[in-house]
Amino acid sequence: MKKIVHYINQFYAGIGGEDKADHKPEVREGHVGPGMAFAQALKDEASIVATVVCGDSYFNENIDSALPEVLDMIKSHNPDLVIVGPAFNAGRYGMACGAVAKGVSETLGIPVVGGLYPENPGADMYKRYGYFLETGNSAAGMRKAVAAMSSLALKLLRGEEIGSPEAEGYIPKGIRKNYFAKERGSKRAVDMLLAKIKGESFTTEYPMPVFDRVDPAPAVKDITKAKIALVSSGGPVPKGNPDRIESSSATKYGKYSLEGINDFTSANGETAHGGYDPVYANEDLDRVLPVDVLREMAANGEIGSLHEYWYATVGNGTSVANSKKFAAEIAQDLLAAGVDAVILTST
Amino acid sequence: MVKEIESTGLPIVHMCTVVPISLTVGANRIVPTVAIPHPLGNPALSQEDEKELRRKLVRKALMALETEVDGQTVFDQ
C-alpha cells in the first residue's frame, strides 16, 4: 500500500480558529480532520500514514524555520505522495500549502496534490510545484475537492499518465507538452482564423500570458507637503462596525471620518476581519491603522497632512472583482480630495 | 486594491506581513510589518516601545513613497 502524508492547518486539525493560528508544526500518526474523507476515497490503494499540522499565521510569519521543520516531519514518514489542503480561498493556508508543495517537490522529488480556489494567492505563486485541483471558494466544496484530489492522487501513485489541466481539473502548471496533432500547424492556424472571421468560437493553442501589473507611480516629491491617506484590507472600522462589513467575502467597504480621533483605543475602533485573531486590533486599532503616529507626524511637519477619512474593507476571502471595484471607487475619492500618496495596510 | 489605486497614478505603499502575497498580487512599494494580527504593533512591548516601533515602520513607508522605483521593491532595511 502506498503511503501519503497530509498537510493541514490548525483549523482543519480541530485545534482552533484564528486564536490558534500561531500553532507550531506538529505531526500526528494517521489521518486527521478532512484526512478521514481522503482515507475513505483512497480505499485500500493508499493510506494517510501521518498528518502534519501547522498554524497559518505561524507558518507564514516564520516560513524560513517552519518549512524545513514541516519538510522533516513529512520526510520522516517516507511518503510516496503528499496531499496539501484543500485550502479553498484561504490566503495564508493556500500560501502554506503552496510552499510545502514547492519544498516537497524540490527536496523529496515526490508528487504533491492540493486543492485551491484559482484566486487564492497561493495558486498563482506555487501552481507549478504540484497538481492543485481547482476548488470552490469555501469549505462547502470539500466533498467535491476530496473526490477530485483523491482520484488524481491515485492516478499519480499508479503511474498513470496525467491529462491536460482541462481534462483533469487542475490549475495549469505552465508546462508545455509535445504531442502529435492530426493536422499541421499552418492548417490549424488558418482554420482558427476562418473560425474567427465567421464569428465562431475557437481555442488558441498558445494563450498569451496576462501581465497583470501596474507601473509604479512616481515618488512623492516632498513628503512634508504631502497629504497622506490610509486604506486597509485588515477590517479597521469604528467601534460597532456601523456598515456591518462582513467578516469574510466582503461585499462593501467603509469610508470613515478621522475627526476627533488622535489615538485608537478599545472604545473607538475594532476590526471586522474574521481571518485573524482580533484581540490585538480590538485593543488598539493603531496596530492595523497607524493613526496615532501619523497625527503626530502631521503636527510636527513630518508629513503635510493626514486625509480626514480612512477607507476599510475585509480582505478575507474577498473576490478580486470586489476588491478592484472598491479600490477604483476609493481612488476616485482620494483624487478628488487632493490626496498625494496612500498607505495601505494588510493583515 | 494596491494596483487599482496605483493605476490612477497615486503612489501607494503596501504595509503587510506576508510579503510573498504582496509580491504575487503586484504591489510596487512594499514595507514588511510585524505580524498578521498586529502588523503595526507588538503587544509584547511597553506602550512607548510599541509606538516607537510603529513610528519607525510608518517612517519607512513614507521613505518608500519618496523613493522612485522601477519595479517591485521591498523596503526591508
Q: If you had to describe this structure to a student in words, what would you say it looks like?
A:
Chain A is α/β, with parallel strands linked by helices and about 350 residues long. Chain A is built from eleven helices and twelve strands. Chain A has helices at about 35-40, 55-60, 65-75, 90-105, 120-125, 140-160, 165-170, 185-195, 280-285, 290-300, 320-335, and strands at about 1-10, 25-30, 45-55, 80-90, 110-115, 130-135, 225-230, 235-240, 255, 270, 305-310, 340-345. Chain A starts with a strand and ends with a strand. Chain B has about 80 residues and is α/β, with parallel strands linked by helices. Chain B has one domain (about 1-75). Chain B has helices at about 1-5, 20-25, 45-65; strands spanning about 10-15, 30, 75. Chain B starts with a helix and ends with a strand. At the A-B interface, α2, α4, α5, α9 and α10 of A face α1, β1, α2 and α3 of B.
Question: Topology of this structure?
Answer:
The complex is a heterodimer of chains A (347) and B (77).
Chain A (H helix, E strand, L loop, with lengths): L1 E8 L16 E4 L5 H8 L3 E9 L1 H6 L1 H13 L5 E8 L2 H17 L4 E5 L4 H6 L4 E4 L7 H17 L6 H4 L16 H13 L29 E6 L3 E3 L15 E4 L11 E3 L7 H5 L7 H9 L5 E8 L7 H17 L4 E5 L2
Parallel strand pairs in A: 1-3, 1-4, 4-5, 5-6, 7-11, 7-12
Antiparallel strand pairs in A: 2-3, 8-10, 9-11
Helix pairs in contact in A: 1-6, 3-4
Chain B lengths: L1 H5 L5 E5 L2 H7 L3 E4 L14 H19 L7 E2 L3
Parallel strand pairs in B: 1-2, 2-3
Could you provide a short overview of the structure?
By secondary structure, chain A is of the alpha/beta class.
Please give the domain count of chain B.
1
Structural class from helices and strands of chain B?
A: alpha/beta
- Backbone CA Rg of chain A: 24 Å
- What's the number of extended β-strand segments of chain B? 3
Helical fraction of chain A? 25-40%
CATH class of the largest domain in chain A: Alpha Beta
The overall strand count of chain A is: 12
CATH superfamily of the largest domain in chain A: Response regulator
How many helix segments of chain A? 11
Shape of chain A: globular
What is the rounded distance between the termini of chain A? Answer: 43 Å
Low-confidence stretches of chain A: none
